[in-house]
Design a protein that fits this description.
Number of strands: 8
Order of helices and strands: EHEEHEEEHEE
Structural class: alpha+beta
Largest sheet: 4 strands, mixed
Number of helices: 3
Shape: elongated
Length: 140
Protein backbone atom coordinates (compact mmCIF):
# COMPACT_ATOMS: atom_id res chain seq x y z
CA UNK A 1 0.00 0.00 0.00
CA UNK A 2 1.38 3.39 -0.97
CA UNK A 3 -0.37 6.73 -0.68
CA UNK A 4 -0.16 10.48 -0.30
CA UNK A 5 -2.48 11.83 2.36
CA UNK A 6 -3.62 15.27 3.43
CA UNK A 7 -5.03 13.70 6.62
CA UNK A 8 -3.01 12.73 9.70
CA UNK A 9 -1.34 9.34 9.38
CA UNK A 10 -2.95 6.40 11.20
CA UNK A 11 0.08 4.30 12.05
CA UNK A 12 -1.93 1.61 13.85
CA UNK A 13 -4.04 1.12 10.71
CA UNK A 14 -0.89 0.81 8.60
CA UNK A 15 0.45 -1.86 10.95
CA UNK A 16 -2.86 -3.75 10.71
CA UNK A 17 -2.70 -3.49 6.91
CA UNK A 18 0.70 -5.21 6.65
CA UNK A 19 0.70 -7.65 9.57
CA UNK A 20 -0.20 -11.28 8.89
CA UNK A 21 0.29 -14.63 10.63
CA UNK A 22 3.30 -15.27 8.39
CA UNK A 23 5.13 -12.16 9.56
CA UNK A 24 7.01 -12.37 12.85
CA UNK A 25 8.41 -8.84 12.66
CA UNK A 26 6.86 -5.44 12.04
CA UNK A 27 9.17 -2.43 11.73
CA UNK A 28 7.84 1.11 11.64
CA UNK A 29 9.65 4.28 10.64
CA UNK A 30 8.00 7.63 11.32
CA UNK A 31 9.44 10.91 10.15
CA UNK A 32 8.00 13.64 12.37
CA UNK A 33 8.10 17.42 12.37
CA UNK A 34 10.84 18.56 14.70
CA UNK A 35 11.21 21.93 16.38
CA UNK A 36 14.61 22.72 14.93
CA UNK A 37 16.15 22.48 11.51
CA UNK A 38 19.72 21.35 10.94
CA UNK A 39 20.14 24.17 8.39
CA UNK A 40 18.45 27.12 10.14
CA UNK A 41 18.60 28.17 13.80
CA UNK A 42 15.03 29.53 13.87
CA UNK A 43 12.39 27.39 15.62
CA UNK A 44 10.11 25.48 13.23
CA UNK A 45 6.35 25.85 13.75
CA UNK A 46 5.22 23.39 11.06
CA UNK A 47 6.10 21.85 7.72
CA UNK A 48 4.20 22.22 4.44
CA UNK A 49 4.48 19.41 1.90
CA UNK A 50 3.63 19.44 -1.77
CA UNK A 51 3.74 16.42 -4.04
CA UNK A 52 3.41 15.71 -7.71
CA UNK A 53 0.95 12.83 -7.34
CA UNK A 54 1.26 11.39 -10.83
CA UNK A 55 5.03 11.04 -10.36
CA UNK A 56 5.18 10.36 -6.60
CA UNK A 57 2.73 7.44 -6.38
CA UNK A 58 4.29 5.35 -9.19
CA UNK A 59 7.77 5.92 -7.73
CA UNK A 60 6.57 4.92 -4.27
CA UNK A 61 5.04 1.77 -5.77
CA UNK A 62 8.34 1.04 -7.50
CA UNK A 63 10.22 1.43 -4.21
CA UNK A 64 7.80 -0.94 -2.45
CA UNK A 65 8.25 -3.47 -5.27
CA UNK A 66 12.05 -3.16 -5.08
CA UNK A 67 11.93 -3.73 -1.31
CA UNK A 68 9.83 -6.87 -1.79
CA UNK A 69 12.23 -8.15 -4.47
CA UNK A 70 15.36 -7.47 -2.40
CA UNK A 71 14.14 -8.38 1.08
CA UNK A 72 10.89 -10.33 0.59
CA UNK A 73 8.67 -11.99 1.30
CA UNK A 74 7.22 -9.00 3.07
CA UNK A 75 4.34 -6.57 3.18
CA UNK A 76 4.99 -2.84 3.05
CA UNK A 77 3.08 0.41 3.48
CA UNK A 78 4.54 3.79 2.51
CA UNK A 79 2.48 6.92 3.16
CA UNK A 80 3.59 10.55 2.91
CA UNK A 81 1.64 13.57 4.11
CA UNK A 82 0.82 16.58 2.01
CA UNK A 83 -0.25 19.96 3.28
CA UNK A 84 0.57 21.36 6.72
CA UNK A 85 2.08 19.03 9.34
CA UNK A 86 2.31 20.37 12.89
CA UNK A 87 5.16 19.82 15.35
CA UNK A 88 5.39 16.23 16.52
CA UNK A 89 3.06 14.88 13.83
CA UNK A 90 4.28 12.20 11.42
CA UNK A 91 4.88 13.40 7.89
CA UNK A 92 5.98 10.04 6.49
CA UNK A 93 5.47 6.44 7.57
CA UNK A 94 7.08 3.26 6.31
CA UNK A 95 5.75 0.05 7.85
CA UNK A 96 7.24 -3.32 6.91
CA UNK A 97 6.13 -6.78 8.02
CA UNK A 98 8.44 -9.72 7.29
CA UNK A 99 9.04 -13.21 8.64
CA UNK A 100 12.18 -12.04 10.50
CA UNK A 101 13.38 -8.73 11.96
CA UNK A 102 16.58 -8.33 9.92
CA UNK A 103 14.72 -8.26 6.62
CA UNK A 104 12.04 -6.00 8.06
CA UNK A 105 14.63 -3.48 9.29
CA UNK A 106 16.60 -3.64 6.03
CA UNK A 107 13.51 -3.18 3.86
CA UNK A 108 12.24 -0.30 6.00
CA UNK A 109 15.56 1.54 5.78
CA UNK A 110 15.80 0.90 2.05
CA UNK A 111 12.30 2.27 1.49
CA UNK A 112 12.71 5.51 3.46
CA UNK A 113 16.14 6.21 1.97
CA UNK A 114 14.84 5.61 -1.57
CA UNK A 115 11.77 7.75 -0.92
CA UNK A 116 13.90 10.68 0.27
CA UNK A 117 16.17 10.39 -2.77
CA UNK A 118 13.61 9.73 -5.52
CA UNK A 119 10.02 10.72 -4.75
CA UNK A 120 8.54 14.02 -5.97
CA UNK A 121 7.61 15.47 -2.57
CA UNK A 122 8.80 18.93 -1.54
CA UNK A 123 9.10 20.33 1.98
CA UNK A 124 8.76 23.92 3.13
CA UNK A 125 9.69 24.81 6.70
CA UNK A 126 7.38 27.30 8.39
CA UNK A 127 9.25 29.11 11.15
CA UNK A 128 7.81 30.49 14.38
CA UNK A 129 8.62 34.01 13.12
CA UNK A 130 6.28 33.48 10.14
CA UNK A 131 9.03 33.16 7.52
CA UNK A 132 9.26 30.08 5.30
CA UNK A 133 11.98 28.27 3.36
CA UNK A 134 11.98 25.35 0.95
CA UNK A 135 14.29 22.56 2.12
CA UNK A 136 15.90 19.90 -0.03
CA UNK A 137 15.38 16.24 0.86
CA UNK A 138 18.50 14.74 2.31
CA UNK A 139 19.23 11.17 1.28
CA UNK A 140 21.16 9.09 3.84
Amino acid sequence: MVALSSAPLDVAALVRDVQTKEHGAVVTFLGTTRETSPDDPRPVAALEYEAYDSMAIPEMEKIASEAREQFGPLAIAIVHRTGRVALGEPSVAVVVAAPHRARAFDACRYAIDALKARVAVWKQEVYADGETAWVANTPP
